[in-house]
Amino acid sequence: TAFDEVQGMACNAALRTAVVTGHFETDFARPIPLGSVLEFRARVDGTVRRKVYTSAEARIVDGPLADPDVVVASSVGLFVVVGHEHFAKGRDYADGLPQSEHDISAV
Prior knowledge:
4-stranded antiparallel beta sheet, mainly beta
């Protein structure tokens, strides 16, 4: 989700390290009509060893029901710091199917 992305980016910007999502909650305070342009604000609230606690809010800045002073949704997250080697296993899948010496054209 957009909340997961912005909170993960906040972790990366603040800590300069890779993280993965451990737990995530989103609360919607108001309807968000289709076509709305949202502004997200995310922050790192604290860290304990490898755990990173985050929060974020969303506001409608353009479109139906736009009011940049009103929070329409919020979220809290727990991210876990991992080494870059954590992503090595899935590296081959990043751009589609992994390369294989076997014929996978029927997949």
